[in-house]
Amino acid sequence: MNGSSFARLAVVISGRGRNLQALHAAIADGRIAARIVGVISNRADAEGLAFAGAAGLPCFVLPHVEYRDRASFDAALAAQLRELRADIVVLAGFMRILTADFVRSFEGRLLNIHPSLLPRHKGLDTHASALRDGDAEHGATVHFVTPELDGGPRVIQGKFTIGAHDDAARLAERVMMDVEQRIYPQAVAWMARRELRFEQGSVVFRGRPLLEPLSLHDLEPGF
Ligand code: GRF
Fold first, then answer.
1. 121 C-alpha vs ligand 1 centroid, how far in Å?
2. Which of 53, 116, 198, 208 could bond 121 through an S-S bridge, CB–CB 3.0 to 4.6 Å?
3. Ligand 1 centroid to 181 CA: how many Å?
4. In this model, does residue 155 exceed pLDDT 60?
5. Residue 144 belongs to domain spanning
6. pTM
7. How far apart are CA 169 and CA 138, in angstroms?
């Protein structure tokens, strides 16, 4: 971290930015000791940028279509993050696969949220896939990012029971509102306080290796 008591957070988005809004709210009311130093989107039309702009957050657009390949886009993203001196890089609905080189250079500082109970349902269409498989439970997972897609060590997972009337749209809503908007700000708050770390490939929480992901029961009051 940077010596000050506020972690420098960069939030990387592609879409609506509901996780960004939840993080911003948690910073505003003092639950996360951090400052958002930049919101970066690979799409100029990402709805989340409108929110970020209105909230006075510095916005940066790196349109992926303007880069000749994945490596050159990732190099530009890395350069932007370095310029921002980001301590923590929060992928929040960022819909691109990152190269292993990029991931390695930000190892331990890179968090992602995935809308499923990882390791179940990696990749896209997680809600439909949970229904198709007849899962009893569904939810979301915050994990450190490693070169394996959606495969990095899990930090916290929030789950709920799938109801008889849940379709994919309703599951998406429940995952976002009841789980993601709670567990992501909490995980970032722990990171900002350095209670959560990634050391030699493992998650360390309050000084001990985390063998199983934390759960909704571990949320602090307010999250
Ligand atoms: C979330 O469900 C997140 O898990 C997934 O994409 C969605 C992003 O939503 N990766 P938002 O942009 O934060 O509203």
1. 15
2. 116
3. 10
4. yes
5. 113-218
6. 0.97
7. 13
